[in-house]
Amino acid sequence: PVSPGELLCLGSSLAFSGLFYYLYRKKARVAARIQEAPKLQVGDDLPALVSAADGRCLPYVALEGIVLPAKAALTSHYHEGMQGVIQKLLLKEHRLIWNSLVRSW
């Protein structure tokens, strides 16, 4: 005989296992896409490659080349001697706002 408490524990264990497996698979897909990211050289042709991309966005790209930091290079806490630089960060957001008074965008 199985008690209701045991069934409840088994059910919640299965639910949590399913949730964690789903999250694991989602992160594994992202990691695979990062590993398959194209490696581009920093140069004058980079803006042309971005503007030619679908939606003017490259989801995952590894940039290689020499860039100079504005203040100090970013260092890794996990790998000694590994440094990086954020050369330029640009975020554009376009929002449409519904105006209920004139019923238009």
Automatic annotation (TrEMBL):
Q: Which InterPro entries match?
A: MDM2_MDM4_MUL1
Alphabetically ordered keywords of this record = Ligase, Membrane, Metal-binding, Transmembrane, Transmembrane helix, Zinc, Zinc-finger
Indicate whether Zinc appears among the record's keywords. yes
Question: Which GO biological process categories is it annotated with?
Answer: protein ubiquitination
Alphabetically, the GO molecular function entries are: ligase activity; ubiquitin-protein transferase activity; zinc ion binding
Segments traversing the membrane: 6-24
Q: This chain belongs to which protein, by name?
A: MUL1A ligase
Organism for this UniProt entry: Centropus unirufus
Q: Which gene encodes it?
A: Mul1a
